What we know:
alpha+beta; Jelly Rolls; 6-stranded antiparallel sheet; 10 helices
Amino acid sequence: MAGTVETNIYPYAExxxxxxxxxxxxxxxxxxxxxxxxxxxxxxKILYCVGGCGRLNYDSVNCELAQxxxxxxxxxxxxxxxxxxxxxxxxxxxxxxxxxxxxxxxLGLDKPVVxxxxxxxxxxxxxxxxxxxxxxxxxxxxxxxxxxxxDMILELHRxxxxxSMPGGDSRNELLLPVLDHIEDNFRRDLxxxxxxxxxxxxxxYIGRIFRQAMGCSIENHIRKRRLWEAKxxxxxxxxxxxxxxxxxGFHDAGYFSTVFKRTExxxxxxxxxxxxxxxxxxx
Length: 283
């Protein structure tokens, strides 16, 4: 679907009320006018600029929205936007869902976000697919669009994490070597300083963007990865608890048991017994 989108579609969505994500509307225009949303607005919104220029106001923020800029607004969050050039081309989607508030919070999308200078290729692709689906599938299209709407949210999250930093690196480019190193070395003692050195940025910065991307600190991520490995070994092997602790980067079996029980609510031995019983019952 090439060129300017001149349409506003609000699909009948009663039968998707119980879905975690539900598309409520999608569209675009080459001549965006003045829009004001109040606390009464009941949908989440993604709006992005394809051409021209507009201005956005929310809270104490007053910023320009030019080509490649993306804006996200939580539902019920007052904001307004308007063109500053005669022709302002935008595309938008609004959505809600029974599981969306928690999901968006975990993605760091519980407040308004403006992302500058993005590549819009993937957002356009998803938006085009939604529009085509709504026009060609009157029966199941709204269900398919709910999944595509979730794809749009994930792309927004990727763009938020991938904002350019000084030097031209992206956040993902910083995090991937760190995550790879954790995956290859979590079974041994893994000082945080070692990961900071790999990232090439400060401890504070890598810690902040790691938490934004992964939803937890580097230390907690390493601990979770070790516990995940431990659960696999408890279920799939007959190794002693102390041996499993050592294989998963815990030098002290007692500490391992304490951390495991605090996280899982069961001791390692109880977890092994319960998991194997459930596995046997499913056979």
